[in-house]
Amino acid sequence: MGRWRPPAAHSTALVTRAGHARLKAELDELWRVRRPEVVTALAAAAAEGDRSENAEYSYRKKQLGEIDRRVRYLSKRLQALRVVDSAPTDRSAVFFGARVELENLASGELSRYRIVGPDETDARQGWISIDSPLARALLKKRSGDELEAQLPGGRTSFAIIDVAYDDAPGDA
User: Fold this and answer.
1) Whole-number percent of the chain with pLDDT over 70
2) Any alpha helices (H) in 81-164, and if so which ranges?
3) pLDDT of residue 85
4) Residue 81 three-state SS
5) Nearest-10 crossing angle of helices 55-80, 17-29
6) What are phi and psi of 156, to 5 degrees?
7) Which three-class secondary structure state does DSSP give residue 100?
8) CA triplet 67, 72, 75: central angle to 5 degrees?
9) How far apart are CA 169 and CA 97, in angstroms?
């Protein structure tokens, strides 16, 4: 049996202005700061002699490969992304950039989420990808609507309590 896997589904190429700036800053940090540091350390490790038993050399080669892989990804991804920096005309419905307050109908628990691009999700802040099952179920719904979403824990019912947008949607 082969190791072939079907290609992953392409993620939505939307990002907020702040998310785009963070990705550009990460690319700049990797290219101008971290990569030169690792190259210098790699050269020093290579100068120590036998590379076959040199753990520092092996570690630095691996680290350089990881940095180069991320730089390639970010370089391609930043070109493909579309920055969304304006709120939709219909601010009462859920679209990209919306901040949504939900009530779990089974438990009564309240949750707050912000729908962002797949490159800027952050569970601690409640930022969910527009490609996530919950965000897909929320799209185009309005305050007061009820919905069901297939989540990892099973099918869950929610009621939308509030839909809001930042005054400057590109801001965090």
Assistant:
1) 95
2) 133-138
3) 86
4) coil
5) 150
6) -130, 140
7) strand
8) 120
9) 6
**Cα(63)–Cα(70) distance, integer angstroms:** 11
**Amino acid letter, residue 83:** V
**The pair of three-digit structure tokens given for residue 155, joined into one six-digit string:** 């099918």
- Nearest C-alpha neighbor of 133 from the set 111, 155, 103, 112: 155
* Token code pair at residue 22: 């963070």
Q: Which two tokens stand for residue 65?
A: 């490969």
Q: If you average pLDDT over residues 76-95, what whole number do you get? A: 92
In tens, the pLDDT along 64-85 reads 999 999 999 999 999 999 999 8
- In whole angstroms, what separates CA 119 from the centre of its chain? 3
pTM of the model: 0.81
At 108 the three-state DSSP class reads coil
Question: 13-29 b/e with 16+ CB inside 10 Å = b?
Answer: ebbbbbbbeebeeebee
Instruction: Give the distance, in angstroms, between the CA of residue 77 and the centroid of all CA atoms in the same chain.
Output: 12
* pLDDT score of 98 more than 90: yes
